[in-house]
Amino acid sequence: QSQEVSQARIDYHVALQALQEHGTRMVCTGKMHTDRICRFDYLCYSSEAEEFVFFHSNSSVMLPNLGSRRFQPALLDLSSVEDHNTQYFNFLELPAAALKFMPKPVFVPDITLILNRFNPDNLMHVFHDDLLPAYYTMNQYSDLDDEARLVFMEGWSEGPHFDLYRLLSSKQPLLKEQLKNFGKLMCFTKSYVGLSKMTTWYQYGFVQPQGPKANILVSGNEIRQFARALMDKMNITRVEEMEKEGGSGEDEKEKEKKDDYIVVFSRSTTRLILNEAEVIMALAQEFQMRVVTVSLEEQSFPSIVQVISGASMLVSMHGAQLITSLFLPRGAAVVELFPFAVNPEQYTPYRTLASLPGMDIHYISWRNTKEENTVTHPDRPWEQGGIAHLDKEEQDRIQASKEVPRHLCCRNPEWLFRIYQDTLVDIPSFLEVLKEGMKTKPSLKKAKVASTVHPGRVREPKCQTSVQTTNEAKLTVSWQIPWNLKFLKVREVKYEVWIQEQGENTYMPYILPQQNYTFSENIKPFTTYLVWVRCIFNKNLLGPFADVLTCRT
Ligand code: UDP
What we know:
nine-stranded mixed sheet, five-stranded parallel sheet, single chain
């Protein structure tokens, strides 16, 4: 910290003069507070007021200039969780002239990313809400490089996973608490405020029951690139693209098979698997593989990632530790266990992750359906699922219920009661679910072949028409292959043609293997048809339609 102060002093007068003359400048992206990230010159922070300060001068810039709509409800979300009212960002305004009466500002020379961590105590939240969004926000703005400074404004202390946040840049992240040490007024020379929400896939149930986000924009590719970058930072020697079903020759397959192993991620304080040893034995026997256990209580995080990154299967009770499935190799399987009365369909952060396009992780869930195999904890504190604080009647209702009804986040006592049960896993039903689930596991080879390159527009689309008789006509449509096709090896190329009679609101779709076709059925003389053509690779990779053709018979 003192180093920054002295480094800043070199240009101190220049910086102070710039602030006084130019004030603060802000330019943002995003139409709404929920998709906004702002870049600032000379955004200041008063540790006394615990507020950011925007200094107005003749040359300050504030774009968007929302007037008081800036408070309806806020300028932007400081965390990646959408529109959460504890995560809003705004600033106070002052005229730059007020600087004369204020404590001398301390300038932060680093390019800074200012954000809120959402729940730094929970590993799932750390990755989903903070690390992935921060990583890709830094990717978006090239001056947020390895030298960037991160500032966490949520007000929490470092938390148990601070080492992970440290991987994002070479500079120590700052906590809100530490800003005081810089004096009463600090000014960030250049800063970005807010986080990209592009990579998040789950909403936690603040306004509607939890579930996948409505419009998921991330694919397995971006998750894996992030995982790889993090592993490199953790100095994990990853087995280069060790894909479990890869390998060419039989020998290689044999060798890989020997190295195959299953990881059981165990929790040691809550939501226990009571017969873990039995589960491990059953897995080893069923798959003829080594089974290793890991737990956050016993291993360092990097050593856990090292193990998971080479596993064929990850088995765990539902819980934040399952976010580590993002380090699994392609082609691996995740098996998530759910306690009694918890419906796996309704709690799907890890299923959604595994199912992202291109993630290539096979997902299987098992739930305990035998009430005699569950161990409840009604007398624990409410946040660990205790229900002793509730009316007797409500306690009885919860105890008698066989499934937690849909509910909102975060303090539903019935949900907490059920999700914090310990479970004796019924081995026969567990193995049954596994066997069934593995039957539908796609082979990785197939997944790999399915390319992600989309066709371009078909070129030179043309139509020719002729009238046969008073009620017969022909319409010939032809086109050239998309420009990118000649560079690609595509298993199957097809074309889709839509024909619509002008003025009608329905159309006839045709799928064709060739580049021209003469339509005669349903084609009337002296009629205008609108024709659209597009290319399709491998059944489901759709290209764009070419410009519409207007064809008069
Ligand atoms: N945790 C753990 N072992 C346990 C219980 C919890 O390592 O026995 C970790 C868990 O991975 C998470 C944090 O503690 O990072 C909070 O756990 P909690 O049960 O509150 O959340 P959940 O796992 O349901 O998201």
